[in-house]
Amino acid sequence: SFFADSFKEEHAAKAGFWERGGVRGTPPRRRRIYFAAAWEEIRLDGEFLEIEVVRGDAQMMESDAYCVAMTTCGSTKTARELARGIVEAQLAACVQLLEMQSFFRWEGAIQDDDEVLLLMKTRRDRVEALEAFIDAHHEYDVPELVVLAAQGGSREYLAWIDAQTVVADPSE
Predict the structure, then answer these.
(1) Of residues 132, 165, 146, the one with CA closest to residue 72
(2) What digits encode the pLDDT tens for the residues 74-90?
(3) Which of 7, 10, 49, 109 is exposed most, by the fewest CB atoms within 10 A?
(4) E strands of the chain, at which residues?
């Protein structure tokens, strides 16, 4: 298994050598892959797991609590309005807009359209509410929503995402 291979490589690295497929050499520097594989193996009951990794002076946090969600809009004006609403509703800490050209099949015909990609940095526990917001406010009949797990990031940036995506207490 990948986890077992990574575990063997990690311990071989501690011993000062690395061997794969009969080739010996210096160990690869893939500690991030090792930690990513380790999380998948030790995730408990679907709860979020965080592992702190210290590399030199930088502190990185490995976590499955964060993600980047993507959607597209047909115009910059519409994308700006949707992005502002998402940030105001605290569904994402940051939304970036990128103009692009999209090719896709829709209703039996190949389309070639200008679109604007929205990259939304958020927490996984906000995705359901984000999806509902996009469904309610999007111009497309079938709006795209693709969510990519973020394996981690700088401790300060992830803390900022947490602070910007706080769910307001309705009793206040």
Answers:
(1) 146
(2) 999 999 999 999 999 99
(3) 109
(4) 18-20, 23-25, 50-55, 58-73, 94-106, 109-123, 146-154
pLDDT single digits (tens) 33-60: 333 333 333 334 444 545 444 444 456 6
- How far is Cα 37 from Cα 3, in angstroms, rounded to an integer? 5
Is the pTM here over 0.90, yes or no?
no
| Cα distance between the two ends of the chain | 50
Q: Are 63 and 51 in contact (CB under 8 A)?
A: yes
Q: With b meaning 16 or more CB within 10 Å and e meaning fewer, what string describes 85-106?
A: ebbeebbbbbbeeeeeeeeeee
Decide: 26 and 51 in contact? Cβ < 8 Å: no
**Torsion of the alpha carbons at 62, 134, 93 and 122, rounded to the nearest 10:** -10
Which residue from 126, 153, 168 is spatially nearest to 61, judged by alpha carbons? 153
DSSP state of 126: G
What are 102-145's pLDDT values in tens digits?
Answer: 999 999 999 999 999 999 999 999 999 999 999 999 999 999 99
